[in-house]
Automatic annotation (TrEMBL):
PANTHER family in alphabetical order: PADR-FAMILY TRANSCRIPTIONAL REGULATOR, TRANSCRIPTIONAL REGULATOR, PADR FAMILY
Gene (UniProt): padR_2
Transcription regulator PadR N-terminal domain location: 27-98
InterPro entries tied to this protein: Metal_resp_DNA-bind_regulator, Tscrpt_reg_PadR_N, WH-like_DNA-bd_sf, WH_DNA-bd_sf
Entry protein name: PadR family transcriptional regulator
Signal peptide: none
Length: 119
């Protein structure tokens, strides 16, 4: 039996795959300065340039980060509709953001070096 390796060409980087790996860090980062409710956090991420991010991904990430103990929540009444559930970064979340940022910066530095060398 013979095995042959096939060569495929990747035409572009799939940003949705990249987002899966860094969405937790991105959400923690947008909550660093200001608390926010779900849609507000989604809007801030999109404004920052993560335009391909899905609503469900952000809401799932918020639930996961809360369950992991990185966020606290509180409810603010709204005169225009349902009450809004706000998310806030707590001390554990700030520690996670710092650690994740360190890992990201190291990874990005390595990738930048590799990309410069291949250019």
């Amino acid at each position: 039996m013979q095995y042959f390796a096939s060569h495929t060409t990747v035409l572009s980087v799939d940003t949705t795959q990249l987002l899966k790996g860094v969405l937790d860090l991105a959400v923690l980062a947008v909550l660093r300065e200001d608390d926010g409710y779900g849609y507000d956090i989604l809007r801030r991420l999109r404004t920052a340039g993560l335009t391909e991010i899905g609503d469900a991904s952000v809401y799932g990430t918020l639930r996961r980060l809360f369950a992991a103990g990185y966020l606290t929540t509180y409810v603010v009444p709204s005169e225009e509709g349902p009450h809004r559930k706000y998310y806030a970064l707590n001390p554990a979340g700030r520690t996670q953001l710092k650690q994740g940022g360190d890992v990201w910066n190291g990874f990005a530095s390595t990738m930048n070096t590799l990309l410069r060398e291949s250019a």
